[in-house]
Amino acid sequence: MTTHQPGLRRAALTRAAFVTAPLCMLAYGLIRLSDPGHGPGPAWTTGHIALLAGVLQFAVILPALHRLTGPGAPAPARLSAGAATLLGLAGSLAVAAQAVIDLVVGLRAADRPEMARLFDEVQSHPGVMPAVYTVGPMLFYVGLLWLLVHLAVQRRVSPWRPVMVLLGTAVSAVSLDLLPLGALFFTAALLPLSLPLSLPLTDRPGSA
Question: Among residues 48, 55, 21, 19, which one has the least CA distance to residue 32?
């Protein structure tokens, strides 16, 4: 029984991530709305800590979703799931890097103009803008959506899950002020996947 304890703990942490990751994103969106000046200050720092915590947990969720493909799946299906997972993880790394930069800038700056100056310094380095602020973060959404669509085609998850992720991504792209709504869509897509440890990490039989 002792031999299985580490595995059970990892499973418990993984299942918890399906709940806490989108809730951390929700917290970030709500804190951001409460801070019309958008930093620096406690709201900026707290919000970006929540963002970083959520992104790091998505780095746990993506491999967990990948494992749903199963070792017995055809080679093309395994390759598709692997590619989607790698894209999502690369995007997670980009968002995490952005959150860390935002945290450091917020802690160093005394006011918003100084934040703008520090951001200009960082973003002026070649490759930073596409890697951390534009292309890189989009890989997270593409990878997560691709993985859920792949699993839905395999009938491993319900088809409405990728639809929820697509809606969450779309509303977040329209305006950062809609991040809380986007996080709720993500929560709806991922929360039901947090099942008791006695059950496999997939939809309940007959779920819709």
Answer: 48
C-beta separation of 164 from 189 below 8 A: yes
Peptide bond into 126 cis (omega under 30): no
In the numeric block, the tokens 């917290």 are attached to 27
- As a whole number of angstroms, the distance between CA 54 and CA 1 comes to 32
Handedness of CA 159, 203, 92, 54 (dihedral sign): positive
Q: Which two tokens stand for residue 135?
A: 């292309």
What tens digit of pLDDT does each residue of 43-52 get? 999 999 999 9
* Token output for 78: 């395994």
Peptide bond into 130 cis (omega under 30): no
Residue pair 136/130 in contact (Cβ under 8 Å)? The answer is yes
DSSP 126: T
Structure-token pair, residue 82:
């692997």
**Dihedrals phi, psi of 148, to nearest 5 degrees:** -70, -35
Question: Which pLDDT tens digit goes with each residue over 89-137?
Answer: 999 999 999 999 999 999 999 999 999 999 999 999 999 999 999 999 9
Q: How far apart are the first and last CA of the chain?
A: 35
